[in-house]
Amino acid sequence: MSNLYQIYLISDATGETLDRIFIAIKAQFKNINYKIHTYSFTRTENQILKILENAGEEKNSIILYSIVDSSLAKYLARNSDIKKIPCFGVLGDLILSFSKLLNQKASHQPSGQYALDEEYYKRIEAIQFTMNHDDGNLVKGIKESDIILLGVSRTSKTPTAIFLANKGFKTSNIPLINENSLPEVLRENPKISCIVGLNTEPERLVEIRKNRMSSLKENKNKLYTDLEQIKKEVNMARNTFKKYKWPSIDVTRKSVEETAASIIKIYEIYKENA
User: Distance (Å, rounded) from C-alpha 42 to C-alpha 110?
Assistant: First the structure.
């Protein structure tokens, strides 16, 4: 049986770049048995020490990092060396280094990361599932979701779901009109899947909805953009998330990539405790 490699991807941002780099690296080697540990928004020495503590408890740990702060990057490299954990910045000669660690010759196949492998088809399946389960559609199949997103209108549910689907997560998103609008299956079994609420500041939501109505040349539904009504919706959503103990994310100042990175962290915790 081949060794199980623990791959730690450490980034001071969303980690998207590291994900792509590791996909390119592993495409050069056959039959790698590995487990990914993703740590995004790593910006303090305390965070790094905690990650290294976890990595030190595992066998065959390998660290790949992308950190802009040079002093923090050196801190990570220095402490990894003390713990004898292989550690590489994204600008290093990664393929050569992995070749030595895995005791394999790299294939040097160009565009190997685009091979039609199992992960590729899993991603396509996730995208298809997510498109079919957009905006509360096909609720009967919701239990097959890896992740379920809830939120009032215009809280970035659909773009976030699509981003997650491109990562291979089957994602459903459901508009939250009021608590009674929740599918019965979620009320009866709040832990049926990794359920995450999305929320935003009412004032920001007014702007987004007004822009949406303007693009549609629609101005009849005054309540849709009314600040007091939106405040009620946002508070209702927050209370619903709290009642069912669903984690929630304030997306007011977050990009879709940042929101998705936070959701993936929540998903990983959910799977560990499932």
Answer: 31
Instruction: Based on the fold, state whether residues 72 and 168 are members of the same structural domain.
Output: no
Look up residue 146 and give its DSSP letter: S
Tally of domains within the chain? 2
Q: Which long-range contacts (CB under 8 A, 24 or more apart) does 87-90 make?
A: 87/62, 87/63, 88/62, 88/63, 88/64, 89/65, 90/17, 90/18, 90/21, 90/64, 90/65, 90/66
Domain extent, residue 60, equals 4-114
The whole-model pTM stands at: 0.71
Q: Is 151 exposed, middle or buried (0-12, 13-18, 19+ CB in 10 A)?
A: buried
CA distances from residue 133 to 126, 142, 165, 192, 248 in whole angstroms, order as listed:
10, 8, 11, 16, 20
Question: Residues 6 or more apart from 255 whose CB is under 8 A from it?
Answer: 14
**26 and 160 share a domain?**
no
Using one digit for the tens of pLDDT, what is the confidence trace for 22-61? 988 888 888 889 999 999 999 999 999 999 999 999 999 9
| Torsion (CA) 13, 89, 91, 268 in degrees, nearest 10 | -40
